[in-house]
UniProtKB/TrEMBL annotation:
Residues 128-313 form the Integrase catalytic domain. This is ISNCY family transposase. SUPFAM superfamilies: Homeodomain-like (SSF46689), Ribonuclease H-like (SSF53098). It comes from the Bacteria. GO terms for biological process: DNA integration. The lineage of its organism: Bacteria, Pseudomonadati, Pseudomonadota, Gammaproteobacteria, Vibrionales.
């Protein structure tokens, strides 16, 4: 006769057998099984009368006394079917408790919903099928872009980001560039380098990074594109965001290859910094494309010539913000007050919008209808120099800004630029490089 016993019951059989054969005392058995001596005696009696079968639970195979009634289960299922058919088990259970005063465990509800087909567990869910697509037909029709964060220098330098521009039709690496972070200014600098070298492609293909797409509530406020998206719009280049990483698999696979080959090549070349790597990357790109690039289906180059001048590109790839000129001929941008030069032409601009251009190298330009305006700076993050502004007729307006900034500074140990602005790591690196060049010249 075969018996179905749990591990706990099997352990009890050995202990109770030892008691029956007088090899173990009931007191010791009670301590071993963590049961009372009275219950041990009861088990011994059952063992002597029925053998090992007497230790098997009589409740095995029978429904629990604490189970929900079939009527209650059907009532819950009907409610879920009517109101919460597309809800998850946790959310549906919350609503059943709040709106219907029905209390049950989330796991029980999950099992019921799975049995009825309302919910599919992650283990049972079928993986999405990503079918391959053909490459585009010609060079420059679609360029996939992505940033790969990795320890590229194997500890010889800080972790950084490699921005990759790869052509979809040929698999050619069009542009590579290392940067501290994956920021708007970095993408602007790299994109400008790309279009100056290759021309303007039809479209860039990216992920849903905040550099490319507004992922929060800005769309509801009327701002419909990011700074990078606005720059591409002015250049007449489309920007397409992929819905999954598999959709832009060309650049994702390239990142994996680069994390192997590029790291080893830089190790052999003795490259230990971002500056050295960026200067050496064109040599690597040429060698990589000779090995792995393929011939496109069409020999036509879809890149369009770059017609914008250098100064126009400077404005396009700058962070642009509109400000209204006050009666005191001042505007405020990034916690800095800019004092526009008082003259008849500028006086006519009071109350009109003017544009602030924040360039990737950290410089600022203020223009109206493309014409630059002369200005001086009053930085609220610095100490007010009374001697420098005492002769200014707009002293009251400037001091009002100063008082406001001082009130804020009292409760803030260290003040910085606005955190809502885009990352300035690229600007800081550009300014540091410029200072190094000036010192070398001197």
């Amino acid at each position: 006769m075969l018996l179905s016993m749990s591990p706990k019951e099997l352990n009890r059989v050995d202990v109770i057998r030892d008691i029956s054969e007088r090899r173990l005392r009931q007191k010791d058995a009670a301590e071993l099984l963590k049961l009372s001596r009275r219950h041990i005696q009861r088990l011994v009696n059952q063992y002597r009368g029925q053998g090992p079968a007497g230790l098997v639970s009589l409740r095995r195979g029978k429904p629990s006394n604490r189970r929900y009634t079939p009527e209650f289960k059907q009532h819950v299922i009907d409610i879920v079917r009517q109101f919460y058919i597309d809800f998850g088990p946790t959310f549906a259970n919350e609503k059943l408790c709040e709106k219907h005063q029905l209390k049950l465990s989330t796991e029980t509800l999950r099992q019921w919903m799975m049995a009825e087909g309302f919910w599919v567990s992650k283990r049972q869910a079928k993986p999405k099928v990503y079918q391959p697509r053909y490459r585009r037909e010609c060079l420059g029709e679609l360029v996939q872009i992505d940033g790969s964060h990795h320890d590229w220098f194997e500890g010889r330098a800080e972790k950084c980001c490699l921005t990759v521009y790869i052509d979809d039709a040929t698999g050619r690496l069009m542009t590579l560039r290392f940067s501290d972070v994956e920021s708007t200014f970095d993408y602007m600098n790299i994109t400008r380098q790309y279009i100056e070298e290759h021309g303007k492609p039809i479209a860039f293909y990216s992920d849903k990074h905040s550099v490319f797409r507004l992922n929060r509530g800005e769309v509801k406020t009327g701002k419909q594109m990011t700074e990078f998206g606005r720059a591409l719009f002015e250049l007449n280049i489309d920007l397409i965001c992929a819905n999954s990483s598999q959709a832009k698999g060309r650049v994702e696979r390239a990142n994996k290859t680069l994390q192997d080959r590029l790291i080893k090549e830089m190790r052999l070349a003795g490259i230990d910094s971002i500056e050295e790597a960026n200067a050496w990357l064109p040599e690597f790109i040429t060698d990589f494309n000779q090995r792995f690039a393929r011939t496109p289906y069409s020999l036509h180059d879809a890149h369009r010539p770059l017609r914008e001048s250098s100064s126009e590109l400077d404005d396009i790839f700058a962070r642009q913000r509109s400000r209204v000129l006050t009666r005191s001929l001042t505007i405020q941008y990034d916690k800095v007050v800019y004092l526009i030069e008082p003259n008849d032409a500028n006086n006519r601009l009071i109350g009109k919008p003017i544009m602030v251009y924040d360039y990737p190298d950290g410089t600022i330009s203020i223009k109206h209808c493309g014409q630059p305006l002369t200005y001086s700076v009053f930085d609220k993050l610095r100490t007010v120099n009374q001697a420098a502004i005492v002769d200014n007729k707009r002293l009251s307006a400037v001091l009002a800004f100063a008082k406001q900034s001082q009130d804020q500074r009292e409760n803030t140990p260290e003040r910085t630029r606005s955190k809502r602005n885009i990352s300035r790591a690229a600007q800081q690196r550009a300014m540091n490089i410029a200072l190094m060049k000036e010192s070398d010249t001197v």
